[in-house]
Every structure is written in structure tokens, then in C-alpha cells.
């Protein structure tokens, strides 16, 4: 009997085995086919290359970018050469994207081929060679530090924890404005000075549990006051990050010394490191003395033991610099536009009054204030604080907009250009919050591309939205804002950025 069973089962087993192998082979072939079909690296070089903006030998298009507002030049070129074109900056070739549709390809569909960065010399030094969430390649380090920052600072639960700090910040801004008005009723106020200082205080409280007034910096043998700490931690690195070293464009000339440039960047690096070290030391002393604090540094000390000392320092510094700038840029532009357009300001004031009455605006009111949200969104569109997304690097051949993009290309998403796209926005030059009221998806925070998208979407968008919306709401609820009668249109911006060149100066009048 055994033999009979054997005779029947062996071929069956063999058949199953052969069948299994065949199935495995078919499945493997299927996946191979799918991969090679989906992976552009195999087929993309049969596609046409990205259209080029004509340049000159060696320098490529560098001279055409010398006016130092690349996002505007890129937008002008998009009108001539289309939503995707390539330029040469010295020895590097760069693809510039100025439409939402192709930007989404870069950020989502083709992300696996474009998930790294090639940094300029200054950024390499100032980011401690990509040791920040925002500047890292997409890898395990990025996932770890992004998890830390979302868990303990920027995610919805962490933001709930910092609510009291935000309320204090708004109260302080309002009080400082009232105090200014009491003393100088007919003078224009510089909102940036007040708002930025309070924003920095909030960033310090989130990171270190305390708005530090002064600190002894052992490595520099000096005591620094708050303003100087702000310069070292925020202003200097911000300026450094947009500094350009001509060697960035000609990697084959890296050996040529450019000492004065290197010294400037290294001085920024050393001073920032010294101040951060002093802040960390002081915090450790507070913990040792039994003070109970609930801030990012406390979380990092207990949960981020795999980080090296330098990575720890960078992780702590990251939300300080990121909190202190873009939100202020947005709020200042919104207030400039509202001061320039009294009718729109009245409309916003009426909306706030109808919802809040005699109470001060709070975060709970936000969902009932669509016009306030539209003011914020329209400001992000017209004056996007990050006009060009930090450059991405193509590490394997890919396809964008139906064109072949070879490995080694850099990709710039021109957010400003996307937001000025006439096919998407009617009269894009006009600041008109109304356009966000008629949209079905007007509450979509990512409608304008200002916060990027995909896996590298801005981690601080919630914080930026809440602070900026409540900031604008409270400023309009407490005061009427006016530009001086002789004020001229002033939309100039600072260097490569979209920050207002001249701070907004406005006359304020407390509301009854
Ligand atoms: C209006 C204000 C803001 C704007 C317009 C903005 C814009 C952006 C953009 C465009 C990116 C994407 C970069 C890329 O894909 O390469 C980004 C990333 C990021 N932003 Fe923001 N940001 C704002 C506020 C903030 C704030 C307040 C914080 C933190 C305090 C923050 C933290 C980050 C971080 C950590 C990333 C990196 C995310 C990642 O790479 O995974 N941002 N932001």
C-alpha cells in the first residue's frame, strides 16, 4: 500500500514543487516586469531631454541669475520655456519645475529616485553635514529625527502641550503694541521687531523650557544677552545658508582656496555651537537642581540616546531656527496687505467680531473663521516664505513631465512660480483672499505648495498655521492697522528670500 501511495504522492509533490517554482517564477517575472515598467531608470533615456534655457559656455545660465532673485527669474523663464526646463549653473545641470502637477511628481511619484540632496559648502557646514530633519537625505536618520521632532515639538499632541506658551506670546505681542501706542500714538510701529522677538521666546520655551535672557558662553568667554543669542542662533545661520561660494558651481575647482568665505561660515558654525553647548549645560544644571521641565531637550535627553553629541545639538537647534523665521515672514506680509486694503481688513474684523464678540480670539475659534484662514492661505501663496524648495538631487535616472532626467541632475521646485501659474490662479499678482473662499477644498493647508508635499512635507505646518492665524486675528481684533498716507507700494524683498526688505511700519489704533 505504501508503495501505491508513494507512487501517487511523489508525482503530486513533484508537481506541487514544480508548480510552486513555476508560480514563483511567474510572480518574480511579473514583479520584474512591473518594476522595470514602473522604474524609469530602464526606459527613461528613450524619452526627450528636458528643454534647455540657452546659456553660455562654461558658466551656463549663471550670469542670467545674477540679479539675485532666482525665483522671479525662474518664473519669467517658465512663461517662455514651460513648466519644466533645465539650466546649467556652472558644471551642474538643474531642472526647474514651476507647476503643481510636475512638482507632485518630484515630491511623490518619482520621490524614490529624487530623495537625496547635494548641499552647498555653506549648508554642508551649517547643517553639520545633513544632521537636520529638513536637510537630511531620506534615510533612517531622517526618519528617526523627524519622529523625535514630531513627537515632542511639532505634532498635534506636542503642540497641545505648548498651548499656554502660544497664548502668552499673543498676550505679550498685544501688550507691547498697546504700550507702544500709549507712548507714541502718532508714530508707526515696527511689528517685526515685536513679533519676531516673541516668536523667538516661544521657540526657546519649546526647545529649552525657558526664554533665556542671557547666558555665559564658556567657549567664547563672554556673556551674551538675548538679542545676541538670537543673532547667533537665527540671523547669522540664516544669512550663511543663502551665502553662495562660487566653488559650489564648479566642483572640479574645489581645491582652489576661498579662505575668506570659509572663515565667515566657520565663525557662524563655531559661535552657534558654543551658544548651544552653553544652553545645554545650563539646562543640565537646572535638571540636577531638581527643576521639573517639559521641553524638547528633556525629551531628547531621555529618548534620543542613539544621537551623537553633534546630532543632539543640531536636533535641539532645528526647531529654534525654523520657528523663528517663516511664520514671522507670513504674518508680516499678511498685516502689510491688510493695512494696505482697509476694506478687506474690515471684513476680517467683522468676521472675528461676529464669532468672538467681546472675547479674545482663541485657537478653538479657528474653524469658524474661514476668511481669516483665507487671508493666511492667500499670503502663503503670494508671499510664500520658502520660494524655492531646498534642492533635491536625482540619484537614479528618472522621468519628470514626460522628459528623461538623468542621475546627477539637481531639481529645484519653484514654489513661487507654482503659485503664480496663470493656468491655476486668476490674476495671480493680486492679493485676494476671496479666491480661497470659493474653493471647495479651501481648508486644505497644502493647497498652495508653500509647505511642500509627500514624505518631506513641512513638519511645522500646524504650528505655523496656528501662530500665524491667531497672530493675524489678534492683531486685527485689537487694533486698526493703517499705512501712512505717503507710504509707497513696498513689496521689495531681502536678497534671495521673500522676506519683506523693509519691515512693515504701520499706524495702529486700538479698537474700542
Ligand atoms: C509658513 C511657515 C513655513 C513654511 C512656508 C515652511 C515651508 C517648508 C517647506 C517648503 C518644506 C519642504 C522642504 C522640502 O521638501 O525639501 C519644509 C520642511 C520642513 N519644515 Fe517648514 N515651513 C514653515 C514653518 C515651519 C516651522 C514653524 C517649523 C518648525 C518649527 C518647520 C519645520 C520644518 C521641518 C522640520 C521640515 C523638514 C521636513 C522633512 O524634511 O521631512 N517649518 N517647510
From TrEMBL:
GO terms for cellular component: chloroplast outer membrane; endoplasmic reticulum. Keywords: Heme, Iron, Membrane, Metal-binding, Monooxygenase, Oxidoreductase, Plastid, Plastid outer membrane, Transmembrane, Transmembrane helix. Its main location: plastid. One of its GO terms (molecular function) is ent-kaurene oxidase activity. PROSITE patterns: CYTOCHROME_P450 (PS00086). It is found in: Plastid, Chloroplast outer membrane. The chain crosses the membrane at residues 12-33. It is a single-pass membrane protein. It is an enzyme of class 1 (oxidoreductase). It comes from the Eukaryota. This is ent-kaurene monooxygenase. One of its GO terms (biological process) is ent-kaurene oxidation to kaurenoic acid. Its cofactor is heme. Gene3D superfamilies: Cytochrome P450.
